[in-house]
Amino acid sequence: MDPRLERHLHLTRREFFSRSATGLGTAALATLLGRESRGHAAGSQPPVPGGRIPGLPSLPHMAPKAKRVIYLFQNGAPTHVELFDFKPRLLAEHGKPVPDSYIGGKRFSTMTGKADGKLLLGPIEPFRQHGKSGAWVSSLMPYTAAVSDELCFVKSMHTDAVNHAPAISLLLSGAQIPGRATLGSWLSYGLGCETDSLPAFVVMTSVSKGTTCGQIFYDFYWSAGFLPSRYQGVKFRASGEPVLYVNSPTGLDRAVRREMLDDLAQLNAIKQREFADPEIATRVAQYEMAFRMQASVPELADISNEPQHILDLYGPQVREPGTYAYHCLMARRLIERGVRFVQLMHAGWDQHRSITTELYTQCKDTDQPSAALVMDLKQRGLLDDTLVVWGGEFGRTPFIQGDLNDRPHWGRDHHPYAFTVWLAGGGIKPGISYGETDDLAMNVVSQPVHVHDLQATLLHQLGIDHERLTFRFQGRDFRLTDIHGELVKGILS
Fold first, then answer.
1. How far is CA 336 from CA 269, 330, 376, in A?
2. Which of 460, 386, 448 lies closest to 420, judged by CA?
3. Residue 431: which of 133, 144, 154, 143 has the closest Cα?
4. pLDDT value, residue 281
5. What residues pair up with 205 in beta bridges, in sequence order?
6. Which residue among 48, 69, 161, 326 is least packed, with the fewest CB closer than 10 Å?
7. What does the alpha-carbon distance between residue 41 and residue 194 come to, in Å, rounded to a whole number?
């Protein structure tokens, strides 16, 4: 070998660590192994044949109430004042200026700027009380109203972010800046998966037809962040093949593909022993998962065996792949097959100038399927240990965005100071409303719930102490709730 090339190889970082068997390489490996014993380090779960994720040996920390989560994320921020948080005063003072005492010192989006002098906007459709719980629900959501006794409405949510992407990132990953692991990834890392033929964390996205206020679905909404990439959410596409590149190339049968994967696994095992890189183990696991998904995904997507009354339950769009209704049915089928976390993201709620038009479409597309999912899970005995969450990243302002005299273009701006989510199943008290906003739905006045509190509570229901599930990265231990988060005990059954 040319001496200059040999010297260069010896000086590369990779070569340095790989050949330092008794130096820094050994020290680094010892450190990693030490962290693994505490459940902190990358790759603490050993590779399992078939690519299955086993979870940390130290979890769960306590007896779980839920085994899995379906997050019905309403991208763009549904208007709490229009749907679930009825305020008679807001209706009575429609068109009057918002009182200064309600908005003093508050930061709104640049579309609003200062809220001084903005006019209050009453709900566009009437509210009624429903069920034994007497839950107030808008007539825009008749199907949700019908199952309100199964739901827990948290009306005192609040957040720190005033724009969509930072607020979604904060709610799903615990930080406004992308780069942290998201909720589904944390659960995959900590609890693993109950199946080896489907991913632990599945994501599906949809947008109402004809909407003008769709939001971008950024990949960091389901990112594994600093966790090994095997814990990242797998996005199922809305049309065509659900997952790209899962199927074998034309002319290549499964037997040949199996032999190729076995050979690749042997080569990767050599590199894994040499470099101890967790991403090599991820690569092997993902190859195996893709191979198994060639059989599992077509079976999953075939809804021809679903009874007609179940299809009718989810509504007319359930037969259209890519719709919210179809995804709700898929969510049930996924958790039946052992998937740990299903994240549905439906855009179209960003109604700055379309409350009187597109809100109707949005509710029509999502109301029936959301309620159907709850009913379907319950009748199958799955709701008890499946936690369903419905909500967006923040709420909408009680005052108008636009001209009060131009009703077709009424809208509401972003509102981080109060919003509503609902939860069902998984050990959550049904038929209650928790927390309260003031008489204009502007500010939380009772039992505030920050997004970190919601995260802590979701983890708790799955048997995880949010302060103990951590991951060492760049010299510190990270967790989903950062240094915040309190358990919302009042909503636990």
1. 33, 10, 12
2. 448
3. 133
4. 74
5. 345
6. 48
7. 22
